[in-house]
Amino acid sequence: MTWGLVFExxxxxxxxxxxxxxxxxxxxxxxxxxxxxxLAHGSLYMVGAYLAVALTGWTGNYFAGVALALLxxxxxxxxxxxxxxxxxxxxxxxxxxxxxxxxxxxxNELVSMIWGRGAQYASLPVWxxxxxxxxxxxxYPVYRVTILVVGLLVAILLWYVVTRTRLGMLxxxxxSNRTMVGALGVNIKLLYTVVFGVxxxxxxxxxxxAGPIYAVQPGMGELILIQVFVVIVIGxxxxxxxxxxxxxxxxxxxxxxxxxxxxxxGSVISPPAAEAAGPALASMxxxxxxxxVLAVRPAGLFPARG
Amino acid sequence: xxxKRMLLWLVFVLVLVALPPLATxxxxxxxxxxxxxxxxxxxxxxxxNLILGYGGLVSFGHAAYLGIGAYSVGIMSFYGVxxxxxxxxxxxxxxxxxxxxxxxxxxxxxxxxxxxxxLAFTQMLYYLGISLAEFGGDDGMRxxxxxxxxxxxxxxxxxxxYYLALALMLFSVFLVYRIVNSRFGMxxxxxxxxxxxxxxxxxxxxxxRLAAFVIAGAMCGLAGALYANHTNYITPGLMSWQQxxxxxxxxxxxxxxxxxxxxxxxxxxxxxxxxxxxxxxxxQAVLGPLLVLSVIFFKRGLAGMFYKPDA
Amino acid sequence: MLEVRALTKRFGGLxxxxxxxxxxxxxxxxxxxxxxxxxxxxxxxxLAGNLRPDSGTVRFAGADITALSAPRRARLGLARSFQxxxxxxxxxxxxxxxxxxxxxxxxxxxxxxxxxxxxxxIQPARKILGELGLGERSEVLAxxxxxxxxxxxxxxxxxxxxxxxxxxxxxxxxxxxxxxxRMITLLSSLKRRHTIILVExxxxxxxxxxxxxxxxxxxxxxxxDTPEKIRANEEVRRAYLGTxx
Lengths: 306, 311, 245
What we know:
The complex is a heterotrimer.
Chain A: H1 3-34, H2 41-59, H3 62-85, H4 93-115, E1 131-133, E2 139-141, H5 142-164, H6 166-176, H7 178-183, H8 188-210, H9 220-235, H10 240-268, H11 271-296
Antiparallel strand pairs in A: 1-2
Helix pairs in contact in A: 1-5, 1-6, 1-8, 1-9, 1-10, 2-3, 2-4, 2-8, 2-9, 3-8, 5-6, 9-10, 9-11, 10-11
Chain B: H1 4-26, H2 30-54, H3 63-78, H4 84-106, H5 111-131, E1 141-142, E2 148-149, E3 153-154, H6 158-181, H7 183-193, H8 195-200, H9 205-231, E4 233-234, H10 241-254, H11 261-279, H12 283-297, H13 303-306
Helix pairs in contact in B: 1-2, 2-6, 2-9, 2-10, 2-11, 3-4, 3-9, 4-9, 6-7, 7-9, 10-11, 11-12
Chain C: E1 2-11, E2 14-24, E3 29-33, H1 40-48, E4 55-60, E5 63-64, H2 70-76, E6 78-81, H3 93-103, H4 119-131, H5 147-160, E7 165-169, H6 177-191, E8 195-199, H7 203-209, E9 212-217, E10 220-225, H8 227-232, H9 234-244
Parallel strand pairs in C: 3-8, 3-9, 6-7, 7-8
Antiparallel strand pairs in C: 1-2, 1-4, 4-5, 9-10
Helix pairs in contact in C: 3-4, 3-5, 4-5
């Protein structure tokens, strides 16, 4: 367990955290502003990944494929909002959970029908395939660095929009007091659709970036979605800042835990026991963390509503 | 006084009782298996209805207790303890304990947080199940032998097992009915109806909700033990959030906060699944939109079509 | 019976309660009046335990209850009716009251006996509903009662908890003239048997029922006195009564 290894895993953790953030930002805004639990958010992640694979193959060009995939995911997201989700804004959370659960079943099967149930291979263009040398001496994939950079750029862009533009002001106001924003004469329907669309695009971006690293298969969205829930609970509903902090924490803790808990345990208790307990404990780590945060701050670290 | 409701129940029970001999005579023993599965999952749905329908706790992690109950039986059987008298109380007890732990943390929160937290904890248990390589990990494990209740009932006899499942399901219906109309149940329902008012008259909802959560977990653990015996196979998938979602649909479709609701919902949902599975491999692509539509249009659930809900 | 000292509550920059001193003697009916936004409901909420004050103390029957939760205070004998009707819409009027009775008759961790027909709960509930003129409507779902009947139900529920102190937050909110008169008659019959804090806008009711009146303006008590003295008070007239009485 060298420092080089630790640093490498730390970078992995940040990269994973950044992807969690992209998902969490959209979800927490939809939750905070429209007060809607959207389980189908994971489906948009999956749609982004699948579309990227399909469209890069079809156009033969990575950039074109990725850009088109983003655009299409945005459109799919807005379509879902208009067709299925609009009626749910005034319903209670239970109804929203159930309805979006139904959407998940539909999308998973739809994807299976078109591409089959097996995993798809998402390829990378040559210029993203290399490694760079870290100062620690080890080599690190260029692609993962790219994800980190893209994610940070998006975070900065979001920060700018949310804190410095009029739209962002409406978003923040809506997150803390929905009815007031409506009363101020803002076109609520449009605001909702825009927010939802942006969230969908972010999820799609996370999905298409995830493709080459994780498996592109039916149900991939739900695996990450539940971790996104943990991020939002820790960060606080409605807060983009909370989503970022929560995502980094969860990403780093989860990655480092999976990498190092077993060897760490092995040095304290017997290796055979660590062999069994290590992975089990590592997978439970972020949920225990969530329970801990809730015990101290029941509304998360940065709740949007006072 | 015989009410319409009681008559409907009587007819329903009679049909269920008559099913095995009828199916055997007609050579369609597959239906005994099918309906037995519905009975067992009805038991799980009834337990969820207690906290969800009557208590207003949107627990997205109820399938965890199906898993705990099933694994309790499976693991004990793995280590050579085949007696149902030991396995099933452990299944119930373990589920109750875990429900206590999860509930104690989760019930302090409300709304969306509660939904997400219960989901997260169940996912945690799911990952725990996957990582236990000794018990099959992701693939799950076979049940070595069905739980033994020597002298009382032989679960290897499909008809005897069926009647046991039926009896337990009916008993749980009765149990929940008594609970929700007792003093305890009234407080639970009041807390769902108007939390602020309930506090204002002197009740703190937390202990009541937690107690209901534990009871529901325990009952679902029993369903898990039954399920392990039914399928002879135990996988972590029993604890998946998809399974939790299924359970919730069984409760909602049937009509929350009604005695017959969960049973009705389970039977209808599983029947629809059976029919769809016969049509196409991609039956979930049909079921998904059906569920969405049912949520959007079918507010009161099926039981609401037959009679008004309990006041 | 109730002693409030230096009660302060801030919401951001707004001082909803600004160092309030307040007393209620046993058997007294003490009204709290003030313009909208004066902080009356905030005040009641802090007395009932729904809000935590930033500083100050609340003493009830000699004991410090400042840190106690709302259910605890209710069990000690503080009953509250809400300004915005807060009953159980899907329960009948009878069961609404029966629940309140249940809260104060032994513990409720009983899982078997049917509480819907328990005479220990139902009989006192019927009696209270009768006293409030809702006897005929006991089987009606609370959601189907008229607005005035719902306000009466609010009071009935508060009474059912055998309270030592009644906190009534605008019991006549939204009522027409006839219903208000009925409510005033009802409340005056309660005067003899209960200690009451009454928040109201209806000046007719306030002057007929109150033994003492406190005037709340911008979170501060500007005057506490008998009704006649309050009516004559210059500062109060300027701040509030000039536009109402």
